[in-house]
Design a protein that fits this description.
It holds the Pfam family Glyoxalase. This is 4-hydroxyphenylpyruvate dioxygenase. GO terms for molecular function: dioxygenase activity. Belongs to the 4HPPD family. Its cofactor is Fe cation. The structure is a single chain. By secondary structure, the chain is of the alpha+beta class. The protein folds into two domains: about 15-165, Roll (2,3-Dihydroxybiphenyl 1,2-Dioxygenase, domain 1), CATH 3.10.180.10; about 180-380, 2,3-Dihydroxybiphenyl 1,2-Dioxygenase, domain 1 (Roll). It is built from eleven helices and 17 strands. The chain has helices at about 5-10, 35-45, 85-95, 110-115, 195-205, 255-260, 275-285, 295-300, 300-305, 315-320, 365-375; strands spanning about 25-30, 50-55, 65-70, 75-80, 95-105, 120-130, 135-140, 150-155, 165, 180-190, 210-215, 225-230, 240-245, 265-270, 325, 330-335, 345-355. The strands form two sheets. It has a nine-stranded mixed beta sheet. Strands 11-12-13-10-14-17-16-15 form an eight-stranded mixed beta sheet. It binds fe (ii) ion (FE2).
């Protein structure tokens, strides 16, 4: 198994028989209230490097875009400059969040033709954009809520990101190694009763397949519950868990998200790291806050037995609040940040895989109890 296969759980796949071949993630595009400061935060706290920029200085009058990278992961952070920018209305409604899960594909036209034939709403038709570095071909289709997938073929392009952007390097000089290497998965929250519809969308329109399924009691707690199914592209580099609220004694955390995001959207982004302990230590030192894991989680004999041997003593995980889950293929270590912005919506997960291709099913209950303690503190439970 190569390092990359291990890191994000890749499998062998033959693109030639795939109706909608996907190479991998292109970028996660955020709309935020203050792109200048969000870009600073992602550099200073998460160790990302600034690679490119567009804004008034480059001829884009109404908004600024900062392109940041850590390993294979690319984020584009956008914020309005002009009060009349369409980004203002988007941010007004949703707060900080992901507007575009852009995917790299080898053939934009082939994917769009398949998607259109299978009922997709095409937002942007296939088109070329060129500058002195070459040509990018792209198109976009709608997914849940106001979220979209831009499909990008950048095989003929050698610039810093896209035509219209200029190279810009980071002013932050980190001494430490990269804190994460890739995007592992991106989770969407959708309304009650809509999860299967979006699973069908990814299967029928984008050629994804079901990967794992968690329903009902798997992830119910005393107070709230959700249902979750996972779809993935052919090689499993792109993995989309989809959650919907389930009926519990109190309001589901998914309902809280849907209320504060004003509809379906991206709930969390899992960032793959080869050393979650070092990453968590570095992030804590920069003031990043994580959900707390109760000591009872580590002391529960049943859980201890199921976890078995992991690469570090359990005490090292407990000290940092890192969760462990094991399945038939191996184990994974994971931890979740608190919401990144003001609304209780989007957050990050950090994940270190050791063979497991799962998503931490065994941790859902422990995690949700931790989330609910915070939800209760906000008066939303
Ligand atoms: Fe996750």
């Amino acid at each position: 198994m190569t390092i990359e296969q291990q890191l994000v759980g890749l499998i062998e796949h033959d693109d030639s028989v795939d109706p909608f071949p996907v190479i991998g993630w292109d970028a996660l595009v955020w709309v935020v209230g203050n792109a200048t400061q969000s870009a600073h935060f992602l550099q200073s706290a998460f160790g990302m490097r600034l690679e490119a920029y567009s804004g008034p200085e480059t001829g884009i009058r109404d908004h600024k875009s900062f392109v940041l990278r850590s390993g294979a992961a690319r984020f584009v952070v956008q914020g309005a400059v002009d009060p009349d920018s369409p980004l203002v209305a988007h941010h007004d409604r949703h707060g900080d969040g992901i507007v575009d899960i852009a995917l790299e594909v080898p053939d934009v036209d082939r994917c769009i033709a398949w998607a259109r034939d299978h009922g997709a709403r095409i937002l942007v038709e296939p088109h070329d954009e060129s500058d002195e570095f070459g040509t990018v071909r792209s198109a976009a289709l709608a997914t849940y809520g106001d979220t979209r997938h831009t499909l990008v073929d950048r095989s003929g392009y050698y610039g810093p990101y896209m035509p219209g952007y200029v190279a810009r390097t980071s002013t932050h000089q980190r001494r430490t190694a990269r804190l994460f290497q890739a995007i592992d998965h991106v989770v969407g929250n959708v309304e009650l009763g809509m999860m299967d519809r979006w699973v069908d969308f990814y299967r029928n329109v984008m050629g994804f397949t079901n990967m794992a399924e968690f329903v009902g009691d798997d992830i119910a707690t005393e107070y709230s519950a959700l249902m979750s199914k996972v779809v993935a592209n052919g090689n499993h580099r792109v993995k989309f868990p989809l959650n919907e609220p389930a009926v519990g004694r109190k309001r589901s955390q998914i309902d809280e998200y849907l209320e504060f995001y004003r509809g379906p959207g991206v709930q969390h982004i899992a960032l793959a790291t080869g050393d979650i302990l070092a990453t968590v230590d570095a992030l804590r030192a920069e003031g990043v806050e994580f959900l707390q894991t109760p000591d009872t989680y580590y002391e529960d004999p049943e859980l201890r037995a199921r976890i078995g041997r992991v690469r570090v003593p359990v005490g090292e995980l407990q000290r940092r609040g890192i969760l462990v889950d094991r399945d038939e293929d191996g184990y994974l270590l994971q931890i979740f940040t608190r919401p990144l912005a003001d609304r209780p919506t989007v957050f990050f997960e950090l994940i270190e895989r050791h063979g497991s291709l799962g998503f931490g099913k065994g941790n859902f209950k422990a995690l949700f109890q931790a989330i609910e303690r915070e939800q209760e503190a906000r008066g939303n439970l």
